[in-house]
Amino acid sequence: MTPAYYDTGERLQPSRTRAAAPVPYIVVRRERRPPVQFHVLSFEGPDACARAGGLASRVNGLAAALAGAGFETHHWFIGDPDLPGHQSRGRLIWHRWCQWISRYHPGGVYDGEEGKRRDLASSLPPFLLRQVMLPHLAAPGARAVVLGEEWHTADAVLHLDWLLRRAGMRDRVAIFWNANNTFGFDRIDWRRLARAATVTTVSRYMRYEMWRIGVNPLVIANGLPGEALDLRLAEAGNRRHVLADLITRAFDDILYDRIQIEGGGHRHISSSAAARSRR
Fold it and tell me: What is the pTM of this model?
């Protein structure tokens, strides 16, 4: 009679509910995903007053997709002053920043832009690090990924990079900064930003524009189609899904060869496959 088995954690043993001949222990190797926390930093976000263009669709979709893939995801944006400062929706957590400034500038996310940008750069990184990221990084093997969007977040990325280095945690965090257009390029310290983050952009056209000012970004295609949730690298036409590309690059940055995403079965994205798709 074939014996039944039950799972004891690291090995399988014969079930005691059926008579069976002695069977050697069978060791089960389990690959466990290290805990990874994602942070998306942008001016625009899901609130009505925080939507001004295509950036909102991009970051809202990206944050929701990361959370839907099973990652703890924090979206930091300039939020409605009349809504909660911090709000959880499953694995997605919204952080509405600069609410006190927005109350004096009711004309939308870019009303009072300069004051919001300065406040974001000075006050958000210390809070993010102390209250959210450091408690997460205290877990063995934990990592974090940060994506800053547009020139408004460049100084916040520089500040966060400095704080992480001072805390001795910089090697545990992959930081990206992404350009969707050329607005505000004259206000960015490109040398410092290139040291602090992996600079990315959304198209080959934008890459050519950035080459003209001496910046060589990685390209992560714009938009987030629904099929990106499948997390498979598309082979036809050498296309890449945004979410898969972003996550793979992030894990390349923090020295993982492969990531594993749970949900609807086990799905793997290998860094080598992603590297081939970039050629």
Answer: 0.73
